[in-house]
Specification:
Residues 138-504 form the Glycosyl hydrolase family 13 catalytic domain. The chain has four domains: 3-123, Immunoglobulins (Immunoglobulin-like); 134-244 and 302-510, Alpha-Beta Barrel (TIM Barrel); 246-301, Oligo-1,6-glucosidase, domain 2, CATH 3.90.400.10; 514-580, Immunoglobulin-like. The strands form six sheets. It has an eight-stranded parallel β-sheet with strand order 20-19-18-15-12-11-22-21. The mean pLDDT is 96. The chain is built from 15 helices and 28 strands. Helices cover 24% and strands 27% of the residues.
Amino acid sequence: MNTAAIYHRPDSEFAYLYQAGVMHLRLRTAHADIAKVSLLAGDPYLMDSEKWDQKPVAMHRGLSTDLYDFWTAEVTTTHNRLAYGFQITGVDGTQIFYGDQGCYPVAQAKKSYFKMPYLHEIDRFKAPEWVKQTVWYQIFPERFANGDPSNDPEGSLPWSAQSPKAQDFYGGDLQGVLDHLDDLVDLGINGLYFCPIFKAHSNHKYDTIDYLEIDPSFGDKALFRKLVAECHQRGIKVMLDAVFNHLGDQSPQWQDVLQKGAASQYADWFHIHEFPVSYQAGRNFEDATDLTYEVFATTPHMPKLNTANPEVQDYLLKVARYWIEEFDIDAWRLDVANEVDHHFWKKFRQVCDAAKPDFYILGEIWHSSQSWLNGDEFSAVMNYAYTDAILDYFVKKEIPLNKMVSELNNQLMLYRDQTNQVQFNVLDSHDTARLLTAAQGNRDLMRQVMAFTYLQPGVPCLYYGDEYGMTGGNDPDCRKCLVWDADQQDLELYQFVKALIAVRKQYQPILSEGQLKWSIKESAPDVLKMTRILGNKKLTAIFNTGQTTVSLTQTQPVILSQQITLQEQQVQMAPNGFILY
């Protein structure tokens, strides 16, 4: 038995309140090393009377990675106290007890149990229930639709699907979004994620000048208030992008620093190493060297805010509260969230919760994120680490099938179940090449990978225009103007996306909360079967990721499919094919 691989940690993703009075417990062991795990659990004050330490309960072998197996159990407690340990039987027949002080042979066991001393409901990780039912749609406001040409920035170009340059303007605005809300309703969208809309110098608006003003090229506060109300009337939630890691260099605070140096009242609002602030320009607008102050990446035009400064905290928390209380937004997406201190994010969470109890907070983090997802900071993160594994297998062909499954399972085991249910799954965005371009124009592959992703735990997000088959490489090419001419839209793809969203919403409880099971047969290594199970309900999908047609037996009604022919109970599935039943 590989005892070094056995791991558990109380009060973490391995032991947490899932619902009031319901604990979820996990245990990690080496892959294929353990035959059985039994849980001994109960109230520590009632062990003598209830003798729960003599009543083992079998744990379920759940998800596995290439290194580990994870065992799970659900425990209902009426006294809000829990002590527990694990009886582990190896495939070689060895038996041990594993508790708070390590591993012992069962016969010599020192019964030192793990403890959850008191299960406080206030400490339970709570995610807004509405998020699980949401299919998001990301809008880059400058390129979605131009509803009001009168507010176009000077020098705006004609609306076009041409590849934009980094500094181009085309006149997209909030009126354009308002004009097309019913199109989004038709598609099935019920959540809008806006890239920044606040006053800023650039077309992307990640260089904020004033967090308390709508950028004039997008509209005004009255228009935004109307847009939010119209969204809510249609059952659509609204999420704004908050750039609290840095300000734009055209902001009054940074301009004051440039003028007054160390004497500026805002000198400590930023991370400045030397006055006067300076840098050496790089080869393009975004890069610089020899900076005397901290910035986002190497961009001299985005000086980093000192969020440990109480004045900065007060200002940003005022911003967070203002847009919730005054305009009734439903969520914040936090840009460069991993580069802001945890101390600030904890205060931010408290302010948002006080303003709106069911508020959703989404952090932009591209890597494993346990530190931010303990219930006192974010609700979820942009789940790039999860969807990267999907893209690496389906689209880039860089990893084998079993490695993708291993990576997906590993990510799921990093977080509590209620966290996984609201993680934000993106296949492309304003920061990446569009999915169809990454798939080298293969629409069957695009549809296959979308179907696979929409069946995963978490909530899907569609990047504007993907439903019409828009293409584009990395930034800025992925930020083209949305094509509204029906003759230039892929309407067949649109209908597929619409059908996929309908499936996601119809089977949402299973897809949000159901167990996930995988099946890969040695005889068909390019065929992946996945099943989602919730109670006595089940959804199964099969994907042919290989280069040859495969034959399957099918007896259940088909919900959604691609590249298949069905004759009686036999299915012929072509490459890039899938079937959901």
